[in-house]
């Protein structure tokens, strides 16, 4: 794992007096510096923007550059976690939520974010013979919106699909107790508890090597309540994003962030003062999520729109949520073959 976040600033080749000023300003590790900007650094240290830029460039130079083979990249992309909606899976690249990356689902209350998180926590357990990850899930609930009975309903729907596909008489059928036991549930009540949990998550993942998915529901909630210091909030969110990225890459797991929406007003001076709904937490945080999907309602129907991806084009699909969980809409059901069955 990349432990650059634990490297002290004394490991950077720079003037000792500069290192002292950095420590006095609260910058103690390399990761602290990687999470700031030249403007913020210049204000906090009382130096020019150019001096701050030089410091951050020195940080970049101190980082070791590593590479992986194309074979490793292909192997990492082999397994994905299906949503049980062919359209939604296709939106995400063909077979669902990718491992080794952060995927962010944003949407207004009631559009199905929590149910999608629950569905993925169940589906991560689909066996490898069905192109599944055969893993376990960590579900971090920051809002108290996790409903155990809904998990049971979705789990039963998945269990039926899996057990109906069994052809090996030596394979034991899946049962509800087994599925529920492989979802590790954590409830946090504020951003301090969330930060503390994430700082211990590395050790938890080492002890639970079958975990292939982390869901945070929602990432925005702890940071939208009584948070007056926006500079601190930005630094904490950047730290969380970096930690989650490291976990995803190191442990080869999918990290799914469920995010809220907020209203953004245009600049009246620019001639555009129209209010629009955008993902919460701002551009700085959302830019750190390589995959971003907006879930929304239109004419009482649910839609998902991919707004950001490193290698996929923007696209919109329709989906539905039934008692058994996420699925394609009836009009698409018969014309599409599910990726997880291939």
TrEMBL record:
Keywords tagged on the record: ATP-binding, DNA damage, DNA repair, Nucleotide-binding, Nucleus
Keyword Ligase: no
Organism per entry: Diversispora epigaea
A GO BP annotation: reciprocal meiotic recombination
Subcellular locations according to the entry: Nucleus
GO molecular function, one term: ATP binding
Matches recorded under InterPro entries: DNA_recomb/repair_RecA-like, DNA_repair_Rad51/TF_NusA_a-hlx, HR_Repair_Mediator, P-loop_NTPase, Rad51_C, RecA_ATP-bd
Stated name of the protein: DNA repair protein RAD51 homolog 3
The organism's place on the tree of life at top rank: Eukaryota
Gene3D superfamilies linked: 5' to 3' exonuclease, C-terminal subdomain, P-loop containing nucleotide triphosphate hydrolases
Domain RecA family profile stretches: 77-261
Primary location class: nucleus
One annotated Gene Ontology cellular component of this protein: Rad51B-Rad51C-Rad51D-XRCC2 complex
């Amino acid at each position: 794992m990349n432990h650059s976040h634990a490297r002290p600033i004394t490991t950077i080749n720079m003037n000792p007096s500069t290192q002292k000023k950095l420590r006095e300003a609260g910058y103690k590790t390399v990761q602290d510096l990687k999470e700031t900007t030249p403007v913020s650094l210049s204000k906090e240290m009382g130096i020019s923007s150019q001096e701050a830029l030089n410091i951050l460039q020195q940080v970049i130079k101190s980082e070791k550059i590593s590479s992986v083979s194309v074979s490793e990249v292909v192997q990492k992309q082999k397994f994905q976690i299906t949503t049980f909606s062919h359209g939604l899976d296709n939106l995400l690249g063909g077979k669902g939520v990718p491992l080794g990356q952060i995927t962010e689902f944003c949407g207004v209350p009631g559009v199905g974010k929590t149910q999608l998180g629950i569905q993925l926590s169940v589906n991560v357990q689909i066996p490898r013979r069905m192109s599944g990850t055969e893993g376990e899930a960590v579900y971090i609930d920051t809002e108290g919106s996790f409903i155990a009975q809904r998990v049971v309903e979705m789990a039963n729907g998945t269990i039926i699909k899996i057990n109906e596909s069994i052809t090996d008489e030596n394979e034991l059928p899946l049962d509800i107790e087994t599925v529920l036991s492989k979802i590790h549930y954590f409830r946090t009540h504020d951003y301090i508890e969330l930060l503390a949990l994430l700082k211990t998550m590395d050790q938890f993942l080492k002890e639970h090597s079958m975990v292939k998915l982390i869901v945070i529901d929602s990432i925005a909630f702890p940071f939208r309540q009584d948070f007056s210091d926006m500079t601190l909030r930005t630094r904490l969110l950047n730290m969380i994003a970096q930690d989650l990225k490291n976990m995803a890459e190191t442990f080869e797991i999918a990290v799914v962030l469920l995010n809220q929406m907020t209203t953004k007003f245009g600049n009246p001076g620019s001639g555009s003062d129209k209010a629009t709904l955008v993902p919460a937490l701002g551009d700085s945080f959302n830019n750190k999520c390589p995959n971003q999907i907006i879930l929304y309602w239109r004419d009482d129907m649910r839609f998902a729109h991919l707004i950001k991806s490193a290698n996929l084009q923007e696209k919109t699909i329709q989906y539905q949520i039934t008692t058994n969980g996420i699925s394609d809409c009836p009009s698409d059901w018969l014309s599409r073959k599910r990726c997880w069955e291939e």
